[in-house]
# Entry
Amino acid sequence: MTRLAGLGRLLADRFQIDAVVPQRDGSPELEAIGATVFRGPLLRFGAGRDKPAPCPSFGAYLAQIGFDSPDRLREVLDWWRKVLVSRDVSVLIADYAPMALLAAQGLRAEGWAMAIFTTGQGFGLPPWHLPSFPVLHPEVGEAEHSESVLLEIVNTVGGDFGLPPLAAFPEVFRADLSLVTSLPFLDPYAGLRRDPL
# Structure
């Protein structure tokens, strides 16, 4: 919240600031900059499972928060698309919001004028241009779903929301600029990034 509030403060003199946050109590950092705060869908790790599956890569993590479920993906993309359109969003700054990024990419493909930025720490903001998510934790075992299966789900559902087919699963994080806030030794993708830390 502090990172988003800082970015919002930089833009507050030129834009109406809207903020979508997970359902939790209060958002004083965002409210302090005059943001209109909306409660958004919560992407809960391992929701609906008795036991979370292994997560050797960030792609496997995305599966655990709903990318393996066409119904959940459709529900959240629909929610984000409606918010982005109804609030007439011209600049999206997404911090740990991969489904918001997909909804914005779909709107842009349909001609919507919107700048798309991502921000976050190293692990939670992988480079979008990679052919696949690198395995970061081989010791935990195999992922439940292959990235090709997850990519097929995204492309099938995303097509209903104007999203052109992604060539690789990391393209979920495609943005005009990634504002990664980390130290190189803490960033598992440090040698793979195009944008500076």
Observations:
- The chain has a mean pLDDT of 90.
- Helices lie at 2-11, 28-31, 58-67, 70-86, 98-109, 147-159.
- The beta strands are 18-22, 36-40, 91-95, 115-120, 177-180.
- The longest helix spans residues 70-86.
